[in-house]
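Sequence in, structure out. Go.
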Amino acid sequence: MYGKDTHIPDDGTEHGAKSEGPGCCGWVLTILSYILIGCTLPFSLCFTLKVVQEYERAVIFRLGRLLPGGAKGPGIFFIVPCTDEYRKVDLRTVSFDVAPQEILSKDSVTVAVDAVIYFRIKNATASIVKVNNSNAATRLLAATTLRNVLGTKTMAEILSDREHISHTMQSILDEATDPWGILVERVEIKDVRLPVQLQRAMAAEAEAAREARAKVIAAEGEQKAARALKEAADTMAESPGALQLRYLQTLNTISAEKNSTIVFPIPMEFLAMAKKSIGNGNASM
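Output:
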């Protein structure tokens, strides 16, 4: 009919077998309440029978004391209107945003980081008895944990290692909220905002690095091209007819493009011989 949560009392005194009962006045009030319920049947059933949903649990206090057996629900449960008070607890997963935190990283860079936390109540009794407001306490603890964890990381680690930071925060929060009956299911870093000046500096640095890599790649290409040209020149030097064949191939390529101008290269040897002959003529004069 209904489930039960484990009852873990922790108030500095010994509970269980050594716990004191409600006392004589408490027993008298309880007996009178049952008599009143019996005398007003069936109308009293409207006040004694309560229903909680599948995702809820009810923590019942009788004369200010927690009833043994843990939380009640889901389904129908019975209370004594004159002596009992109950609190409903929602067991569904709750998500909330951690407000953006201004954090000074390990390398002295100020960043604004926000996160989202997913948690649920796994022990309804502990969430009522052990902490005043479990939701508010979890929110404050999450903000503090976010600042403490990110304060030990550098800016590069915050930007590149979000998954590890999320797992670290989840383990810390889960361990701290376990006595409250809360289970932290997931922690996600939503956004990391850098100062505008730092963004510009990082953009300039990245652009300079890209330009440097481009120049290196272009220089390597020129080096490979020069090496290939040298090897081609050596190959042509070994065969006297290779240069003429290359010239004819070039003419064929130019003629295929329907050009009206054809350039005839003059070998450098002819120029050298002409210059030498002119020099000899001037010397004879």
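Check: The chain is about 50% helix and 20% strand. The longest helix spans residues 196-238.
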